[in-house]
Write a structure and sequence with these properties.
The complex is a heterodimer of chains A (374) and B (313). Chain A has 374 residues and is mostly helical. Chain A is 65% helix and 6% strand. Chain A has a 4-stranded mixed sheet with strand order 2-1-3-4. In chain A, β1, α3 and β2 form a beta-alpha-beta unit. In chain B, strands 6-7-8-3-9-10 form a 6-stranded mixed sheet, sandwiched between helices. A 4-stranded antiparallel sheet of chain B has the order 2-1-4-5, with helices on one face. In chain B, α2 packs across α3, α4 runs parallel beside α5 and α7 packs across α10. The radius of gyration of chain B is 22 Å and the shape is elongated. Chain B is of the alpha/beta class. In chain B, β1 and β2 form a beta hairpin. The two termini of chain B are 39 Å apart. The chains are: A mainly alpha (374), B alpha/beta (313). At the A-B interface, α1 and α9 of A face α2 of B.
Chain lengths: 374, 313
Amino acid sequence: MKKIWHIGYLDLKLMVKDKAFFFWVLVFPLVFILIFGNLFRGSKTDTKASLIVLNQDKGKWGAYFSEKLKSPGIELAVTKSEPKDYFRMLVIPADFSLKIEKRAAQTLLLKKDEDANMQAGAVAETRIAQAIVKLISELIIYGNHRDIKAFFDSRSPYRDLVRVRTRLPRDTIAKIPSGFDHVIPGILIQFVMMMVLLYGGISVMEDRKRRVLARILYSSASFAELFAGKFLGRVLMGLLQSAILITGGKLFFHLNLGNIFISFLNILVFTLAMACLSIFIGSVLKKEELIVGVSVLLANMFSALGGCWWPAEIVPPAFRTLGMISPAYWAMDVFHKIIFFGKGFAAIWPNLLLLLAFTAVFMALALRFFKINE
Amino acid sequence: MQQTILEIKNLSKSYGETIALANFSLSLKKGEVLGLLGPNGAGKTTLISILSGTLRDFTGSASFKGQDLFSDRRLKNLIGIVPQEMAFYEDLGALENLMFWGGLYDIPKKELKRRALELLAVVELSARAKEPIKKFSGGMKRRLNIAIGLVHQPELLLLDEPTVGIDVQAKVNILDIIRNIGQQGTSVVFTTHQLSEVEQICSRIAIMDKGVVLAEGTLAELIRIVGEKEIVEVSGEFSADAFSAIIRQSDGNGMEILSVTDNQAHLAFADSERIPAMMQHLFKHHLPISDLKIKSPNLEAVFLKMTGRSLRD
């Protein structure tokens, strides 16, 4: 084990010593994060459905209707003057009561901020629809009595005579992962691929060409220790890249990774697959330019297909299905499940198993083609 | 009697139709510096690769201190190998390299560092211990290459052409280092195709060609193979066939043809008084001779006699 660590740690050290190291692992991904982060900025932080009610009504029905909007899932604020900032605001007009008394048709205005959270908006709009239906139904039952509150207090079974329930169609995407919490894990997955395939692949090829691999076997280190050391080195490269981006994400973008343990597990399993793939690439390709080309192509293709740049939830179903050939898809799916959909281990373990299957395939290829001499 | 440290018996290895080693046998005693002399393609590197355990599919055996070299991986802790290539990390410094390569053996870190610093002094790289190796000259890299092979204090050091591609001064330094290693009790096998190198530093010499050992012994023992003869080197614009045809027409008594190639031939004379008559014979047949050298018997003559060709061929 000591020799495996010794060999693996040196590869990590050589990567860190590279002059361009910080550009590739920090500056370059930051550029991507800023571009895609702003492109998919998505909602502001009103994950709880907030609703401002601007009650301009001159009668009693505006206040009564506002009461109907109250719900545990809604942060309701009733105001007489229009606030500067809001996510969504319902305007009750000045002649609201007058029109109710006359049983005349009327219009309520709902104003929304374009960046407001879609899911929270759906909750608020549903509540508004429910309140309208309830009020109309109560008005029908109530008829022309004077005090509607007293009427229903004395006839409590009538209050819940009309129930309004809303249900979204199955598979409706109620929430689309967006913002830096989507983009940073995406760029992290992309750059783990890119860095491990590039640095890992090139160093395997160079070590073979310079006969460094052969010289390691001149010592008492076995072939298995040499291979395991090279594998560990590439895993360490991936984990270091991840640690740098997570730290940067936490410091500058308040990154939320959901369940930290699952996130780490996800990154680790994904890195195992990439470590094997990099050894395979470095073993079969003999020129640095080829390794660079293949690595960049694979990393970008897997990123695009896997939903690292844009959420896989917004792409057409056929493209989404195609994306499943990319290991990045399964890793991103884990991130989305734990960050945006509040899922736990029960929902993500099949993804981890699939990533381990990718690892097994790449490991078999790496072992088959790994050679110490040209 | 000195202990036999390395015993190689009947090693054979082929690459397709090409035979690299053919029943190669050799033994080495403790503290000996053995020069393995042979032209390119003689099988020297193949031998080192087999002994280092990186080349498979061969027949024969090799034992180190009486134990099968290929069955016990721990024996590798006692053997140092210096490959022909500069096989190390050029982005690291000399000290970092020594610490890495030494770290592959079970040496405590403190002891390893002490040993690495000591070796850097031996190979005269202490002043540039932390500088990236890519800035080193060829000779400095060669010296570090040797230091890496010595970092775990091996009892046997195998060097594969350690002086290839460096200038004369660097070569002298490296030969001094190898001589010192031998004097300190480490057994050394040193492959080269430079006659002068083995003459200078080896206690025993083995001449090999086409995968077999043709002759072995001390320098004096090998020279005795040629005997007390004068060696004449004839150079000129002639073909090997023309030279041989003219020589056949002479009486040839007391003369031995060591080698004949286009433009050069080596003849050995038991009686130096016969040399002028032979030269007269060559001139009489208008052989275009441009240079003539008379030498005392040396390793080159032995090599020519054993292989029929010069090391340069």
